[in-house]
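Page header: ASSEMBLY MODEL / two components / 724 residues total.
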Amino acid sequence: MATFPLAPGSTIGVLGGGQLGRMLAMAAARLGFDVVVLTPEADSGAGRVATRTLVAGYDDEKALRALAKVADVVTFEFENVPAGVVEALERLGAAVAPGAKALAVSQDRVEEKRFLNACRAPTVDFAAIDSAADIAAGLDRLGAPALLKTRREGYDGKGQTWVESHADAIAAFARIGGVPAILEARAEFARELSVIAARGRDGAVATYPLGENHHENGILRRTRAPAVVSPNVHEQAEAIAARILTGLDYVGVAGVELFEFDDGRLLVNEIAPRVHNSGHWTLDGCEVDQFEQHIRAIAGWPLGPAHALAQVDMENLIGADIDRWPALIGEADARLWLYGKSETREGRKMGHINRLRPLKRG
Amino acid sequence: MATFPLAPGSTIGVLGGGQLGRMLAMAAARLGFDVVVLTPEADSGAGRVATRTLVAGYDDEKALRALAKVADVVTFEFENVPAGVVEALERLGAAVAPGAKALAVSQDRVEEKRFLNACRAPTVDFAAIDSAADIAAGLDRLGAPALLKTRREGYDGKGQTWVESHADAIAAFARIGGVPAILEARAEFARELSVIAARGRDGAVATYPLGENHHENGILRRTRAPAVVSPNVHEQAEAIAARILTGLDYVGVAGVELFEFDDGRLLVNEIAPRVHNSGHWTLDGCEVDQFEQHIRAIAGWPLGPAHALAQVDMENLIGADIDRWPALIGEADARLWLYGKSETREGRKMGHINRLRPLKRG
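Prediction written out in full:
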């Protein structure tokens, strides 16, 4: 087992070959770490900047053995890492961060909400659903319409559907494939915010200023940060993030999605146990960005500062947005991050641009 | 031949596997380029973050052919690239930037000084040396002591010696190996400054604020930037840099080392036709650092802004300095860059740290 803090020259393993893995690899390299990426993709964005790539399925025993052999700590860029993979890596002697508990909680929307409420991180009311009858009972308590989501998997708006009425229960359950689900009360929120926070191996927590998120077709389109929020909202968000990360005995960076209501109340929508798209503004708005912060945390290094140095409007470049590159490369006070994906597909995140302005004081 | 501006997904070739190549590769990746590094080192710092590494000598015809085949533009991290290598790459259809002229001029200290003086970039007086007799004649004109340097190669204080008197001429010539040399008048300068400048394919020039450099044992130890200089010195440096880059029809980033005299006069010490150690402060002190600026220039992208956003004290971590990492990782307002070199050697640049302070206005 590795001893922390990891010395420069140690190796960090990353499960996942997408843009989050890519930016984690770049941050790790800056700090002198080698990076080994495990991904099923032969030609991945993360693999292009990693010291080494293992091209294999995440449950490939041979690849996991190779990864555990070289990596002092293993992390991941997506929350749907099978529990068996983490167990296998740990059995093979690799430290995995953030750990199995964070994954278990965030992989199951019912477990997640139960955990959140248990650690005084408020959420919408919800019901666990195993049948259309459960949906009808849930609507009695939560009101209609209510949002039906698969308990497991689903992202960017996939695996969810609105249930308009009792009459829709059977059809709605069919629409999500008849799998175990959660029914969530409708939240008449005013804004979607998110908070990116890190927890070190020493238990220290660092919280970035809030971002204000705008989605299109279920995909994050823009984050504005630091969001203009009341001191009360800021304090609530910091307290919620700290309770969640401490409750999970978390090591690394997490994204916490929040609903803000007109009265200033916050509810937690969901936790992402990883660096988060709504934290990409930190790449150019903070001294230590979320990727370096995550590497620092999992390596057992002290966390860096998390305050903002600039006002950032982050725009995701999705699908054909990337064709705008000839204009984007000439924009003043804008920082371009492209993900090295060889194929442009509709809805695929190809890069992002951070537009910078002087920080609003207040 | 490539068409400019290069589209994201294009490939940039880098000759050299050290820290400059590494940071160039990281900057290129951020902008969505693939990077192929050619280096004789099997386990190089740059190769660790590149998409692909060709391990071969720089004059290996097969490797050059492979590089020219995949790279849309080829650049280098060191100025001693043999002219034949550039010719071979160009013959094989690869664009090389900065070009053959910049290399030819900067590889020969006599040619360099002749070029500089021809484009009104003043230098110390000098004499071309082919024999001990030339040294004696040179001392008559330049005075003693004078500095004898090999015309070609030599860096970090290597390949040079002071000639104390006429009596020392024969021994001094022997000390540098009896090769073609330059004798330079002693410069009683007050400070060593440097200016990092970029020129785009459109001929635009962007100049970073000056850095003040401190050497130990012939190796750069610290750069403070922006250096506190008079407006006159700032203007001289900008004009000199622009004349040099335009005179060389340069594409990319160059470092220009300067001597500042008590009366505010500047002389050019030498040109480095590449990103430069004294420009590492830009990594954390500017919106667009010298590495991204170089990639932008050679890719035919518009240059980015070059003004300072912070005051930076850059300290090189040389040899055993790297053993101070447990303290360095916890420093507030300091950004660490480590080079992924597996072996620590005396005098070897292992990394650097940028210590940040708010910008001094004035």
